[in-house]
Write a structure and sequence with these properties.
Largest sheet: 2 strands, antiparallel
Radius of gyration: 23 Å
Distance between the termini: 45 Å
Strand content: under 5%
Number of strands: 2
Oligomer: single chain
């Protein structure tokens, strides 16, 4: 039965690009697990995996342009990486998209860990796997210790960016600031070749920079009050007294202004701040740490 399904899928896939396609991208959700397909592909695992990888990109592109609902993306990528576990791009792509677009951080983490187990460590882009894991733990989980350890692992590879050791130190010291996410997102934008994903990451980068600006401006208001025993009436008051070097520009296109009788800063854009963080885990679990960093457990 499974063999018939695989054969039918291959036949339909050939037909898909013709004038009268025989199935939609949603039919990918009916595929069994990668383990079943791996046994049924009769030695054509990599070919079927490559085909499904193309379909996964089409699935993402279609939903990115419409409802932005990626319900089955994790399932498809799990099948792809089971059929062809040595192929690095699906792990990297899924590591970004599953967390940033699908909102499924746990699936992103699971896929990246799967990649670290199977992709050869001498692959020129292998370091992106622990790099994206560090971002997931830092940005979404707010587990800075685990994030720092994965980033430390990524920094050991010669192909990794030279700024990673400094970022590792920052994570170990104090990462509770939106600005820490900026170099992560910049690297992600530079690394991806998918235009839709790149555009969405740029939007997220602008939002993170906006959050960092808001935090600095509100801290400046507190310093202004401590020094002058009154609240500023405008942002110019903060700039004129040296609390801020200049009035910042919102990368999203809005304008900052003093509100609440001088007690805080708001923006003309109605979009709220990003609320993507999950409850912080104070102590990382052993299973969350890179294999070389786990403490041996003895009975």
């Amino acid at each position: 039965m499974v063999i018939i399904l695989v054969a039918g899928f291959l036949f339909c896939s050939i037909t898909l690009d013709k004038k009268y396609p025989c199935f939609s991208y949603e039919d990918l959700s009916y595929l069994p697990s990668g383990k079943f397909l791996k046994g049924a592909a009769l030695g054509y695992d990599e070919i079927l995996g490559d085909l499904l990888w193309i379909k996964a990109l089409g699935y993402f592109g279609r939903h990115s342009a419409t409802d932005q609902n990626y319900t089955w993306l994790g399932h498809i990528l799990d099948i792809v990486t089971t059929l062809d576990p040595l192929y690095q791009p699906p792990y990297e792509f899924g590591g970004i998209v599953l967390a940033a677009d699908a909102g499924d951080v746990d699936s992103s983490i699971a896929l990246l860990k799967k990649g670290m187990e199977h992709v050869p460590s001498n692959h020129p882009r292998y370091y992106y796997l622990p790099f994206f894991l560090a971002f997931d733990y830092m940005y979404y989980k707010r587990d800075y210790l685990t994030a720092a350890r994965y980033l430390e692992l990524a920094a050991k590879f010669p192909q990794s960016p030279p700024y990673l050791p400094n970022l590792v130190a920052r994570l170990y010291a104090d990462a509770d600031s939106p600005e820490v996410a900026v170099p992560f997102l910049q690297e992600m934008i530079q690394s991806t070749e998918n235009p839709d994903l790149k555009a969405r990451l740029i939007v997220r980068l602008h939002q993170v920079r906006h959050e960092a600006i808001l935090k600095r401006l509100n801290q400046a208001i507190e310093l202004f009050y401590l020094k002058f025993k009154k609240y500023p009436s405008a942002l110019n008051d903060l700039a004129d007294t040296g609390m801020i070097p200049e009035i910042p520009v919102d990368p999203r296109g809005g304008t900052y202004y003093i509100a609440g009788q001088g007690r805080f800063v708001k923006n003309t854009l109605l979009a709220g701040e990003l609320k993507v963080h999950i409850k912080k885990e104070k102590t990382p679990r052993q299973d969350d740490l890179p294999l070389p960093m786990r403490v041996p457990q003895y009975d």
